[in-house]
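User: For a reading group we're discussing how well predicted structures match intuition. Take Hydrolase of the alpha/beta superfamily protein. Before you show the prediction, I'll give you the sequence so everyone sees exactly what went in.
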Amino acid sequence: MNHEVIDEKRREFLGKSSLALSVATIGVSAMTTAAADYKRNPFTLVYGGAITKNEPGKVNIHPVKYKLNGLDIVANVYTPANYDPKKKYPAVVVAHPNGGVKEQVAGLYAQHLAEQGYITITADAAYQGGSGGRPRSVDKPSHRIEDIHGMADFITRYPGVDAARLGLLGICGGGGYSLSAAKSDKRFKSVATLSMFNSGRVRRNGFADSQMATIQQRLKQASDARAQENAGGKILYAGDADMTDEQIAALPFEMYRQGYEYYWRTHAHPGSTFKYTMSSLLDLMRWDATDQIELIEQPLLMIAGTKADSLYMTEDAFVKATGTKNKELFKIEGATHIESYWVPKYVEAALGKLTPFYAKTL
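Assistant: Thanks. Here is the predicted 3D structure of Hydrolase of the alpha/beta superfamily protein, as structure tokens, for the group to look at:
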């Protein structure tokens, strides 16, 4: 059973807005926009160049479902061209961004890595997308980290996977959670991040540490939201917005401006939303992706764009990752945070580092 809940407002918004933003405003071609319509892909994939059908001799996609702590988790497994379950392949777990789903950027990178000979998996986080869990859109670090462990549990038992050659790739918020997962889960022989987003630091301090003065006030709001929720009252949400193009353009940070364009316009998917329960902030605001990061002893590759206004998070984590003797920070010249998700030349640059990294470490 699919536990995904999408309110009618979101459905209406997606239907009206997918073609509403002009090509000139978004800066993408009409062909890319059309390719990003989830309704046109049998697997509801929204990224350019996505698989539309499984063909012999090519990379194939396999929708799967498994249980994690009693919840139904939905995932996509990508297998390499000419996949033979009797052979042994290295594998990579791909963790999606905050608010994202497996059909977006996580699927794009999972598909490209499968083209390089890896079996890959990307799953919708518990309580999000097509996976189970109520209330919807709970976004707690412990759950997101457990999602990553759960993907490792599943994929290491998948036919053809060499469990001794397991890598991890975390994108945006999934990057911060991947750092936490790799600290203790030594099944991961190497870990990479793309446009890493430290969810705890941002929820606590604000983006670019811009809300330090209101931490206690926001903690009180989160505490009240939990009390109301626990008493059976209305569940309060943060991060949800039905924004006009003008409101998006007025946002103060490029990551959020381009993020709304990506998630609500060019790569919109009905399972994807910025929304999360207000009570989740009790967990998020006391957590940090860099806590005990020195426990990571595996090879570490961190990738971010030179023009990403989130770059400071990757640079901060990289310096603090003192436990590994094999680490590299690679900056994609000219790329912003969101552009690393889909702009072909920036995706190619990221894969140009990821491919040799996994080849050496797995």
